[in-house]
Write a structure and sequence with these properties.
The protein is an alpha/beta fold. It is 20% helix and 42% strand.
C-alpha cells in the first residue's frame, strides 16, 4: 500500500505549512483508493479548534461526498496523532509533514490499522512530478 500525492495536493499541503502557527496545522486528505494505492487529489486544512468529534467527522465526510481518505499533520506530535487512533480512522491514511517553512517538506506516511489495538503502519508517500 502507498500514498500518491498529486501535484495540486502537494502544493496545498505546502501552502498550509506556510500558514501554520508554531504548533503546526492539520486537516483532511481528499481523494480515492484504487487497489493498494490511495490517491490524494486535494487537502482541506482544519483549524485546531474545529477538529471534529466523531459525529461531525461523519457529517463532514458526507458533505464531501465520502472523499475523506485520510488526514495530514504539519509538525506532528504524539498528541496530534492520538485522536486518529479510533474506529473512524481505521483504513485512513496519514501524511505527516515537517521541515522549515520555505523548504521542501519532509513527508512520511502511515495507515491507521487495527491489530488488537489501533496502530499506525508506515507506508511510502509518492509525490507526482509536474509535467515539464
Amino acid at each position: 500500500m502507498d500514498i500518491f500525492l498529486t501535484t495540486g495536493a502537494f502544493r496545498t499541503l505546502t501552502a498550509a505549512g506556510r500558514l501554520a502557527s508554531a504548533g503546526g496545522c492539520r486537516g483532511f486528505l481528499l481523494g480515492h483508493r484504487r487497489g493498494d494505492r490511495v490517491y490524494i487529489e486535494s487537502a482541506l486544512p482544519s483549524p485546531r479548534s474545529a477538529w471534529p468529534s466523531l459525529e461531525s467527522f461523519y457529517a463532514l465526510d458526507a458533505d464531501l461526498e465520502r472523499k475523506i481518505v485520510g488526514f495530514f499533520i504539519w509538525k506532528p506530535s504524539a498528541a496530534a496523532r492520538m485522536p486518529l487512533l479510533q474506529p473512524f480512522g481505521t483504513g485512513k491514511v496519514l501524511v505527516e509533514l515537517s521541515g522549515p517553512a520555505g523548504k521542501k517538506p519532509v513527508l512520511s506516511g502511515a495507515v491507521v490499522d487495527y491489530e488488537g489495538r489501533f496502530i499506525f503502519r508506515r507506508i511510502p508517500v509518492i509525490v507526482e512530478r509536474p509535467a515539464p
